[in-house]
Amino acid sequence: DCGGGGGGDDGNDEKTNKFDFTTKVNRVCAKVREVMTQAELEGVTTTGQIISSGHFLFPILSTFAKESPPKLEEALTMIKNSAFDQFASGDTAGMNTKRSPLLLEKAQNSIQYLAFLANYELLFDTALGMYDFDLAKAVARNSQMDPKVYLPMLKRWRNLPDAEAKYEVDVRLKRYDSALKNLVQLGQDETESSEVAGSDDAHFEKCLSFINEHKLHKLGLELYEHHAHYKHKIMVALGEQLLSEQKGDVALTVFLAANPSDINGAKRAARMCGDWKSYFAYAAEDDRDEGSGHGTKESRIRAVAESIAEEVCFKGEMKGDMQKKRESIAGAARIYLDYCGDVASAVDMLIKAEMWSEGRRVSRLHSREDLVKMCVDAAVSYGQKCLGDFEDRISEFTKANERYGEVLEIRKDAKREEGDTGAFDIHQDDGGSVFSMASNASNTSLQSNMSAGSVGSVTSVSSVISAGAVSTFSITSDVDVNKHKSKFNKLGGKKKKKRPKKKGPAAKRRIQPGSEEELKSLVMTLKSNCIDEAYYDIIAETIEFLAQVGRVSLASQLFDSYNQMRVAINDSQQNRLSKAKAEKEDAKKKALKEGHDHDNTFVKIDCEDEVDALCCKMMPDALEQAFSFF
Fold this sequence. Notes:
Blueprint: E1 12-13, E2 18-19, H1 24-42, H2 57-65, H3 72-88, H4 105-117, H5 120-129, H6 133-141, H7 147-159, H8 162-172, H9 176-193, H10 199-214, H11 217-223, H12 228-244, H13 248-257, H14 263-273, H15 276-283, H16 297-318, H17 322-340, H18 343-352, H19 356-365, H20 369-421, E3 427-428, E4 434-435, H21 440-449, H22 478-481, H23 505-509, H24 516-528, H25 533-548, H26 552-593, H27 608-612, H28 621-627
Antiparallel strand pairs: 1-2, 3-4
GO molecular function: tRNA binding
Domain ELP1 alpha-solenoid: 16-155
Domain ELP1 TPR: 166-361
């Protein structure tokens, strides 16, 4: 049963019990080959015909060649074994017994037949991969290869040491793992037969160069497992390779895992990945510093520390995550303080990270009242900016949330109709906006509610489409009316046809009302205008700090403004959800009244849970209690 059902291992899908046709040819070839091979062993076919060994040689070769991928090595091995069996039996037909058995007529014909079934270059490379140069020569003779090319090459390899010949063959075939193994073996063979001092090191450098070129460090470490010195060099080379690939964090681990650790490499890796703590920890151990080399070790470390602090601060400012940004800038402050003794720069970094209390602590620790004042002034300025930001967020969120509820219904109507009809006949414009019969009411609402302006957000995402973006949906357009112009209807007049205006970049970027793009834009606007955890922490810390330094009025104003924003956003969410729930109940009642199954018409959009969960937290209990007295 070659093509029938079987277990999962035979190419069938156990769950669907369907035959895997991708394995069909291979399974048929294997079964046919099995039957023919068994017949040759028994000397008789299933029909009772007496046969000799090699009777099915060509058909069996065909089964090897037609598999995917072709089993050419097995086919060549079969040809070779058949030739040697024939030669051993004395059936040489007058051929010079000193010549290779592969030159027998049957072997030559078999190779020609296999070369007809498979690419001759692939066949030649397969023979080379078997390290059988006589077989490779026999294949080349029956192909289109130039004897001036392959004969000198094969002759050279025959005269090389076994490991070296295999290495060169592997390199030619791009089998680099095998090539490295043979190269290492060549060095071991040369060491056993040579008394020249330093030959091991010279050969290892050749191996290391090959390892670096083809990124074979893992295999190299395995091959030199019991050579500590060489293993260390490979580990260092691996670290350098990772550094060149900008993988500083991985390189740091590799450099330190080497035995002994490569401290200089670890420092460079730590600096690349921004791990300043590790850098300075190992800088204390390493006499080589990246400074100018003049002055004391401490002065050189200080010079490098200033540079690293700038790098850490710059990388921190580039990070999108607010919390990680603050941590990086705080790290730069720590470097200025611990390794540069620069209190002013450290406090400046803490102010950049909105860490007012820590900046005040460091300033007082070093008796710098001028820096304390700087922290207070920065916190006041930040608090005042927050007041305006809260007002903007209320406006942006409430407008976007109202429009979000409308667009969500449009998308649900479109998805619901698609589920009902499979392929639904509704209008779909270039922006992916789908308008169905069920959503016309929403479109009417859209046209009446849209304004010439657009609602922006913190991320500058436009979420309300201007009135100019509304398309006119009419059964007959001006183009249809003018379609049949002629001298009889005055429509053909002397008026020149206006060329359609080319759509510029602005037109292409316009978001169509009710589209998936508008929905995504609204979701982004809502998320960006809702206070995240990092911003919440900064606001709470700012209110607390302002109250502690005597700016109670501003702190109270900031506290109240935040709560107003929180209530406005949460109320907006609650109103939208209540409205949606009421509409859902009305739809359910209507469906039941009309005899429809309401559950089958229920549709949910992917973004709903995420948007519904948006809210602003209350201030910490300590602040709530404290400001209840003011």
